[in-house]
């Protein structure tokens, strides 16, 4: 496996992988939890939102970067991050690994790759976030294993 920089030809696979990875959260977890009114207005177009996000994921001129885990020519995962040079701060904004390759340490390697890039470009600390729900439990375990400190945060929704 190699970790390489995102290339425009990767976009269709990244889009597919993102929808496969996060679809169960939006449809099976978030939607039943908050109901149709909140779901529709908050994340009702989550697929389209990812299509838009991924087209700007790797724009180095704006300090946004993406790398893919390439297994024999097949993308098995990816990570996207950005750097704020003025604050010496990096943020991993998205991480996805194909279900067939989870528990193979690809997510760890992708995060470490992003952290290394951030460090090499002047960041002295990094941020990564995830949900507090059961769906995101593996992500929380990963981030804690990487030495990230969990900041307790609560987000509430209410239909009016």
- The tally of beta strands, per DSSP, is 5
Report the span from N to C terminus: 49 Å
Backbone structural class = alpha+beta
The biggest beta sheet reads: 5 strands, mixed
How does the overall form come out from the CA principal axes? globular
- Flag low-confidence runs: none
Give keywords.
5 strands; alpha+beta; 42% helix; globular; 160 residues
Structure, briefly:
Helices cover 42% and strands 22% of the residues. By secondary structure, the protein is an alpha+beta fold.
General description of the model:
The protein has helices spanning 11-43, 46-55, 106-120, 137-145; strands at residues 2-5, 64-71, 74-84, 89-97, 125-128. With 160 residues, the protein is an alpha+beta fold. It has a five-stranded mixed beta sheet. It is globular. It starts with a strand and ends in a 15-residue tail after the last helix. The model has no long low-confidence stretch (mean pLDDT 96).
Secondary structure layout plus pairing:
Layout: E1 2-5, H1 11-43, H2 46-55, E2 64-71, E3 74-84, E4 89-97, H3 106-120, E5 125-128, H4 137-145
Parallel strand pairs: 4-5
Antiparallel strand pairs: 1-2, 2-3, 3-4
